[in-house]
């Protein structure tokens, strides 16, 4: 268990030191004509969208296609048509681990922790390309693997301190509260060293105190160079915390823009007041 209980200003996991494509303000994600059908139902209907560095909010009535879009972007569904580019790399239809390795990961509405393992063990599983997990790793340079494992353990402890869950490192992940599980899920995502994290309702069901804690952590991470695409049903929260807002309706992008412009868009007002539950 970590000996620290005071939050640090930045996490132990930071973006790589080398400049990233897109650090000059180019879009991180380019989504072109993404379409997805389930049976005879069109869930996504030619979604065109760019996602810039920083925090982008994604809103829309229930059934608008927000989570389906996340699934198509991160490889959990394969789109029927269209392309997805992460920076200049075409990642369309790749498997989730390959997309994560390119620099994009996601969280889920319902956290997917390994309940019977400790919080610390859940964190240690997150970093990718660990040499000790490969069969050939048993035959070469054992000291290298020991050093790598220590680095991973140190990073896991540091990010646990950052999210103020370090006092829970030895607890079974299944024993955490709903809010703590969401913190664990975001922490695990960051341990993959991503460029962009897709957050699917990370604040749903979270008490106001913890909500502000999570938002504060996200803002600090943006200062460190991370970017986020955030689904939330609390429109005020999105408008107050996101630099750009995307509104989906009936499987397509209705509008995008600064929060002030989106709030005053009559199409957005009609979509939310036309009978769909937010």
From TrEMBL:
Segments of this protein annotated with the region Disordered: 1-26
One GO biological process term: amino acid transport
Keywords, alphabetical: Amino-acid transport, ATP-binding, Nucleotide-binding, Transport
SMART domains: AAA
GO molecular function, one term: ATP binding
Ranges for domain ABC transporter: 29-275
Keyword Magnesium: no
SUPFAM superfamilies registered for this protein in UniProt: P-loop containing nucleoside triphosphate hydrolases (SSF52540)
Similarity comment: family membership: Belongs to the ABC transporter superfamily.
Function: Probable component of a branched-chain amino-acid transport system.
Protein name as catalogued: Probable branched-chain amino acid transport ATP-binding protein LivG
Source organism phylogeny: Archaea, Methanobacteriati, Methanobacteriota, Stenosarchaea group, Halobacteria
């Amino acid at each position: 268990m970590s000996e620290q209980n005071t939050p640090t200003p930045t996490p132990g996991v930071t973006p790589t030191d080398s400049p990233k494509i897109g650090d000059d303000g180019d879009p991180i994600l380019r989504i072109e004509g993404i379409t997805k059908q389930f049976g005879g139902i069109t869930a996504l209907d030619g979604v065109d969208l760019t996602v810039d560095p920083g925090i982008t909010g994604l809103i829309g009535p229930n059934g608008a296609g927000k989570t389906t879009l996340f699934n198509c972007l991160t490889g959990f569904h394969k789109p029927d048509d269209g392309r997805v580019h992460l920076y200049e790399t075409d990642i369309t239809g790749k498997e989730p681990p390959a997309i994560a390795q390119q620099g994009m990961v996601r969280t889920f509405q319902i956290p997917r922790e390994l309940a019977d393992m400790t919080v610390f063990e859940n964190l240690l599983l997150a970093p990718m390309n660990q040499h000790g997990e490969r069969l050939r790793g048993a035959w070469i340079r054992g000291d290298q693997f020991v050093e790598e494992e220590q680095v991973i353990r140190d990073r896991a402890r540091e990010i646990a301190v950052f999210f103020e869950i370090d006092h829970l490192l030895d607890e079974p992940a299944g024993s955490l509260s709903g809010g703590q599980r969401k913190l664990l899920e975001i922490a695990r995502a960051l341990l993959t060293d991503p460029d962009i994290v897709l957050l699917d309702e990370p604040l749903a069901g979270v008490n106001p105190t913890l909500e502000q804690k999570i938002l504060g952590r996200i803002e600090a991470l943006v200062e460190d160079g991370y970017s986020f695409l955030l689904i939330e049903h609390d429109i005020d929260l999105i408008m107050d915390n996101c630099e750009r807002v995307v509104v989906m309706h009936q499987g397509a992008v209705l509008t995008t823009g600064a929060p002030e412009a989106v709030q005053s868009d009559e199409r957005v007002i009609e979509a939310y007041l036309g009978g769909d539950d937010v």
